[in-house]
Design goal:
alpha/beta, globular
């Protein structure tokens, strides 16, 4: 029997995302309208709405729907906002942010992720996204500043260069700390190098390239 994707999508929003304190109607609407099943690998299509992290390759995973909902709600994206995403992955979160904002620049270190995301976004009719393939932690530099920066892989600590990529008053969503007890954090740039951090929830994700904790040697 074919899976009823529309019913599964409704169940995901109503039974997973909303109960996890995601109450922003714009976020719930976008999760209800962007077809998540089209952004997962065909082998995992029937798991697109499960409360699971889905493998993407290269040791990376697609966030659970509940985490994606919390990310979108925390950022409070507005139609005029410009967003930077570090870690394109499957492209689903990219698509959702594009629906909520003016433009998304998304960078990923894996060329196959970038190319697949481009195909999926084009099929979804989403055109306000610029995709780049680059290493963002140490090397890549954006050509401007953003209202919001989203880091979709974990980092042991927030790279100091990232704060310069967000406007004063803008926000960075990051997953910080040591696996398996990492913390999702919202960092607000308050201007003049000042920042304020708010811990949102606990989670555990693979680290971005070059962002894992240094190995500790004990004698």
């Amino acid at each position: 029997m074919a899976m009823n994707f529309e019913q599964a999508r409704t169940n995901m929003v109503e039974n997973q995302v909303r109960p996890w304190e995601v109450l922003d109607m714009r976020v719930l609407d976008v999760l209800s309208s962007v077809q998540r099943e089209d952004f997962v690998d065909p082998a995992h299509r029937n798991l697109a709405f499960a409360d699971l992290e889905l493998p993407l390759g290269h040791g990376e995973v697609m966030m659970k729907p509940v985490v994606e909902g919390r990310v979108l709600q925390a950022l409070e994206l507005q139609p005029e906002h410009r967003v930077l995403e570090i870690g394109t992955g499957a492209g689903f979160l990219t698509a959702c942010m594009a629906r909520l904002s003016a433009h998304v620049t998304s960078v990923d270190i894996h060329p196959d992720f970038t190319s697949r995301a481009a195909e999926r976004l084009a099929r979804a009719g989403i055109t306000n996204v610029t995709l780049e393939t680059a290493e963002a932690v140490l090397a890549w530099q954006p050509g401007g500043v953003f209202d919001a920066v989203v880091i979709t892989g974990a980092t042991a600590e927030l790279p100091s260069r990232f704060i310069h990529w967000v406007k004063p008053g803008g926000r960075i969503f990051a997953i910080l700390g040591q696996s398996p007890a990492q913390s999702a954090v919202l960092v607000t740039h308050e201007g003049e190098g000042l920042q304020r951090s708010e811990s949102l929830f606990e989670t555990d994700l693979p680290y971005l390239a070059h962002a894992a904790p240094s190995r500790q040697f004990v004698l």
